[in-house]
Structure formats: structure tokens, C-alpha cells
Amino acid sequence: MAGETFVHPLAAVEPGAEIGVGARIGPFCVVGAKAVIGDRVELFSHVSVTGTTTIGAGTRVWAHTALGGPAQSTHEAKSPTSLTIGANCRIRENVTMNAGSDAGGGRTVVGDNGYFMSFSHVAHDCTVGNNVTFANSATLAGHCEVGDNVVIGGLTAVHQFSRIGRGAFLSGCSAVPGDVIPFGLARGNLAKLKGLNVVGMRRAGDWGGVVMLGNARINDSANMTGSTGTNHMSLRTASWRSSSAMLASRERVPRSYWMPLKSG
Questions:
Q1: CB–CB of 99/82 below 8 Å?
Q2: Residues 132-182: tens digit of each pLDDT
Q3: Would you name the residues annotated as active-site residues?
């Protein structure tokens, strides 16, 4: 009956797992003892939920997805680690999301309403915001921070410790070696910042985007490249604080580098 919790007879749910009201666990799924499956979550079939993993209400997970496995790191975690996934996400076939590691605080966190297409990957210790879209095989390395409303194109890889500001758009088949400003539009191999995600700003409604000024001009490659020749794609000279909450703020860098866009 609708609204009732259902666990298929061919699913393996370990004692201790918490299964919410109206959740549905399909055939050949494996749910570990420390897993928390929220209300109305659907695991369609062949889904693995291991470790200390929490899946928020209404999230749907398709076949052959692996959630909560240990960090893909040469250093085995000795402390408790976890993966937390928000509400109403859509996680398609063969997606992988790993728990945190000792080196990164032990937590991987994914926000609400995310759409993760097939073979996309969220590595250990990443923090991913709300309403994101990861196209097929979009990949985050460890310790990345991704703001709200970010779109990552298919086959695009983001380097470890990178921060992707809210509303940014990373084009498909790009290699992203570092930070991208809020509402930035990045593409290429290695990806270079090419402008602002104006479509994303318009969808946001409040024109919360920003524009680089002065010596940090977007299209001035000389100003975007360090002494080693590495394209940093962002204001590396600014004192950016490593906090996912700051991704949405223009206060992350001195006011002189940014100006609000005018709406209308």
C-alpha cells in the first residue's frame, strides 16, 4: 500500500539500520547496520549503502549506486567517518559517493535537491550545496566545496581542494584545476575562466553574481596565471576562508575586487 515501508525479500538490510516511513528498498540492495534511510526514500535495485550514511527524505537512488564507502585514499581511516545526503535528491545509475577521511574531518555532505547523473562521483570530505546538477561522469576529487545551484558538465573533473562558487557552470569535458568564482563560467582542458554564468544569475532572480575588476580582469590571462604558469581561475591572492558557507558571499575577498550586478 502507498505510504507503507517496503523491503523487498531479496534485499539485505543489516540489523541496526534505520528505515523511514514509506521508504522502499528494492531487490538486491544492501543496507548496512549504521545506515539511516529517510522517509519516502527509494532504492530501486542493486544499491549499496554502507558505513555511517544518512539519506534524506524523498531521495531516489537508481541501480548499481554505491553510497558511503570508505574514502579512496591510501590512508585508511582510523576515526569514525560519514556521508550525509540531503532530501529529494535524484541519484542515477552507478553514482559513487564516499564517506570522509581522517585528513578532512571525516564528513562528506551533499545538500538537498541535487541531480546526480550516471557515473558521477563525490569524493571524500567534499561539501556539496543545494540544487546542484552533476552531468554524466562529473567528478569531484577529495576536499572540494561546491556551492548552491552549480552545474558540472559531463566528463568534467574538479581537482582536490577546489572551491566552486554558487551558480557556477563548468562546461563538459573540462579539467578544473582550482577555484571558480560564484556564477563563473569555466571550460577547457585545463579549464580557464571565460566569463560569468549569466543564465544562472537570471535564474537566481536576485542577481547575486559578481564581476572581477582591476588587475583581476576575467579575460586577462596574464593576471590569471601565477609564477609557475598554473591557471588559478580565481583570486588566489585574496584571503579566502575555507568555509562552504562563504561560497555564496562577496565578502570572501576584499570589496575592491567585486561589484554587484544591476538587475533589470
A1: yes
A2: 999 999 999 999 999 999 999 999 999 999 999 999 999 999 999 999 999
A3: 124-125, 142
> Has residue 243 got a pLDDT over 50?
no
The three-point CA angle 46-51-56 to 5° equals 75
pLDDT at 2: 60
- Say if 262 falls within a structural domain: no
Q: Are 215 and 223 in contact (CB under 8 A)?
A: yes
Q: Is residue 263 part of a domain?
A: no
- Among the listed residues 53, 54, 106, the one whose alpha carbon sits nearest the alpha carbon of residue 81: 106
Output the domain CATH number for residue 18: 2.160.10.10
Cell triple for 66 = 554505491
Q: Which three cell numbers stand for residue 17?
A: 539500520
From residue 123, how far is each of 95, 223, 238, 255 by CA, in Å?
A: 11, 31, 26, 33
Q: Where are the alpha helices (DSSP H) in 17-128?
A: none
Query: Taking every pair of C-alpha atoms in the chain, what is the biggest distance, in angstroms?
Result: 65
| Count of domains for the chain | 1
Report residue 260: phi and psi, to 5°: -75, 145
What's the one-letter identity of residue 17? A
Q: pTM, whole model, 2 decimals? A: 0.78
**Residue 123 lies in domain:** 6-257
CB 156 within 8 A of CB 172: yes
Residue 1: inside a domain: no
Indicate the average pLDDT of the chain: 83
Asked whether the predicted pLDDT for residue 218 surpasses 80, the reply is: no
Q: In what order do the strands lie in the sheet with 175-176?
A: 12-13, 30-31, 48-49, 66-69, 96-98, 121-122, 139-140, 157-158, 175-176
